[in-house]
Amino acid sequence: MHDLEVIVVGGGIAGAALAVRLSSLGAGVTVLERETRFRDRVRGELLYPWGVVEARLLGVADALAPVSRELRHWTTKIQPLHAWRSDLTRSATAAGPAITFVHAEAQESLIQAAAAAGAEVVRGAAVRGVEPGTRPAVSLGRAAGQRGARLEADLVVGADGRGSVTARTAGFQTHARAETLVLAGAMFTGAEAPDDTGHVFMRPDAGLLGLVVPLPGGRHRAYAGYHTATGRRNLSGPPALPAFREVMAGAGMPARWLDDAVLAGPLAEFSGAECWTEPAGDGVALIGDASAISDPSWGCGLALALRDARVLAEALAGSSDLAAALRRYAHEHAAYHDALRRQTTWLETVFRTPGPQADAVRRVALPKIAIDPSRAPDVQGAGPEGASDEGARRRFFGED
To answer: pTM for the whole thing?
Structure first.
């Protein structure tokens, strides 16, 4: 890998983590990051135990430690079932607890780690386009101070998130499910929510979700979600805070948790629709949200992003044939994303979808889940490694 030149478009969590790992393996890495200062944009801040494993394998766990906190317990409340509490340190991965952090703070820590590992980091780099090929190239705009500049490398990796410029300009075709779920998120100070446990509340018959996670520094991140079959709402901006709280309370969260809480950042709504693309080809690879967006209701996006970075790095380290390495990455990427997508699709049907058809499914499934919550896919603890075959599907839906 000492002769491999890599340009990483995007210095967020996935891109910076990949840069750390590739630099440690001897590759020459340049990271192009649009932002000169990271800010809260309502991004994921929960890394499940199987994602913590990925952070360790990438060599970035130490960089995350100063800006994160451990989360050992998780409580799930699906109306009308009794809540159940999970010990994340006893998950299928045996990885220990989950961790939480403020996304922007984790981004800053990781991009500094990438620079310390030997990557060249360019902040304020406006990428206009990516040209695939034997020597793929990145075109930069004025914001990088290099108007008209064109950089070439052996490999370009798009880690530039939703609406990836890399994916769009390099000709990757995106596939998407129809939007049925919408989420909104905000960070709070002064919330009365527990400081030692993550909580998810769902009212399936109404299509409502509430999620509350403790963050470092006495802060909490809360998410409210609704199904589009119940009608569109506007949950963006401070004026939408009462409606946001109403959705959370409707999902089952105790209203007092947010009664005296103060917004500590933006309140923003975003689509919960899954989308994906072929993650590699012709000198260009995609990782994180640039390659696929998992249904954010289940909180797997960060763990998937780090897995993408680790699997790509291992593929590159394991072969001197770049095209073969990219094919290996694409094959493995498809396997774990498909496995997780099967599980989250089942979860959406039973826990997030209103209507008579889903009600009929729940009448069979929920009584059995009430007796044995392990029937539900364990996306927090096991992730893609959780059973997703026909037997697991039948067990979850109570058809066994």
So the answer is: 0.95
